[in-house]
Amino acid sequence: MNQDDRIERSRGPVTTAEIAGLFGDIAGAVAAVLTPDRIAAALDGVRAGAAPAIVLPAPHRSAARHPVRIAEALADPARETRIRCGDDRENTRLLVAGLRELLTEFPVRLFGAAGSATVLESVAKVAEALIADRAERTALRLLRAAAPHLRVLGGSDPRGFRARRAWAEAWSELGEHRTAERLLRRLRADEQRVLAAADPRTEMLLLWTLVGRGRIPEAAAGFRELAITEDTDLAGHLACRRSWVLGQCGAAEESAAGYRGVIAGRTEQLGPDDAETLDARHSLAKMWVYNGNGERALLLLESLLADRARVLGVRHPDTLETAKYLYLARVQAEPSDPRLPDLAAEELRSILHRQAERHGLAHPTTRDTAARLRAIQRATAAARSPHRIDAHHGQ
């Protein structure tokens, strides 16, 4: 490591400012490398033949003796701290492990309330990035390590609200909707008591847990009432989730119009290859599959699969999900082709294996794929059963 980049070892006692500042610098860098733009740039480098390294900058600050070895390891260019194509998340794993070590090695009493607030803000940012990257369990482990800092602040301190929200969102994305609803209702009550109004992000996530629990009419009513007037990322997320609920209620055309508005806005503001733009395109196509309109879904999924494979890699979880719904759409769109169910089942088995390796069998994405595969297999078996009575023979 270059001498100018080395973290100087302090001979004095540990100070709140030193630890909190060091943690904030490192955690901010972690959140930065997880952005879709940085990942896309790294993948562009791969296609151009370059070595796509994204290395954390070394913090230029005096630090206490104990966190130095962790901070140096995180910043050392000799370590494998790169984001590469495909499902390689070794860089993220190492960085988050370093953050967790910082959290677990130092007693909370060394930080004070201000230091704990700094820690929680940094952890929340990193956790949100991990959740967006479909690494919900990693986000939960990081948040658990920061839990003592939440206890220091208590439920009435708004500086802990963001971390609590991320904690609930991770549980929701893992399919633990009851747990997420309980956490979000408690957070909403604290926000209303302390801030006089709940954060719209909390309200949106709470409504989303109702969708996960199958309480669609209740969620639909809540989404109709929840309004965000500013043209922000949050407004786009709200529009997408509202559109999904509309699709679940059978209002497919209204749902599609909502999605198209989000896609147009994100394409203009973020670009056509941004992960958020691709997500909205996928959700629109998925909505058509859920409503049994495979033909309309096919028109979207074929080009989306090519775009996601190009931008994210063929093994990325989002690419696999798009591939899954492409095969489901083909089965819907061409029911008379006897080859398609077997082909779709074969592809879904391959996707299921990869999802189980990455997420585990209990993850909602894996469970959805398994359920879709079973449905195709049952339908195929029923169609080929010798005991099946055709309509013209059954009268």
Topology:
Layout lengths: L15 H18 L2 H13 L16 H11 L14 H16 L6 H21 L3 H10 L1 H7 L7 H13 L3 H19 L4 H13 L3 H10 L7 H16 L3 H18 L5 H16 L3 H19 L4 H17 L6 H20 L4 H21 L11
Helix pairs in contact: 1-4, 1-5, 3-4, 4-6, 5-6, 5-7, 5-8, 6-8, 8-9, 8-10, 9-10, 10-11, 10-12, 11-12, 12-13, 12-14, 13-14, 14-15, 14-16, 15-16, 16-17, 17-18
Structure description:
- By secondary structure, this protein is mostly helical.
- The protein has 18 helices and no strands.
- The protein has helices at 16-33, 36-48, 65-75, 90-105, 112-132, 136-145, 147-153, 161-173, 177-195, 200-212, 216-225, 233-248, 252-269, 275-290, 294-312, 317-333, 340-359, 364-384.
- α4 (90-105) packs parallel to α6 (136-145).
- It starts with 15 loop residues before the first helix and ends in an 11-residue tail after the last helix.
- Residues 1-20, 51-88 and 389-395 have low confidence and may be disordered.
Could you report the average pLDDT, rounded to the nearest whole number? 79
Strand content: under 5%
Q: Could you list the spans in which at least 5 consecutive residues all have pLDDT below 50?
A: 1-20, 51-88, 389-395
Assign the structural class, choosing from mainly alpha, mainly beta, alpha/beta, alpha+beta, or little secondary structure. Answer: mainly alpha
What are the main properties of this structure?
395 residues; 18 helices; mainly alpha; disordered C terminus; 70% helix; globular; disordered N terminus
Compose a concise summary of this entry:
The chain has helices at residues 16-33, 36-48, 65-75, 90-105, 112-132, 136-145, 147-153, 161-173, 177-195, 200-212, 216-225, 233-248, 252-269, 275-290, 294-312, 317-333, 340-359, 364-384.
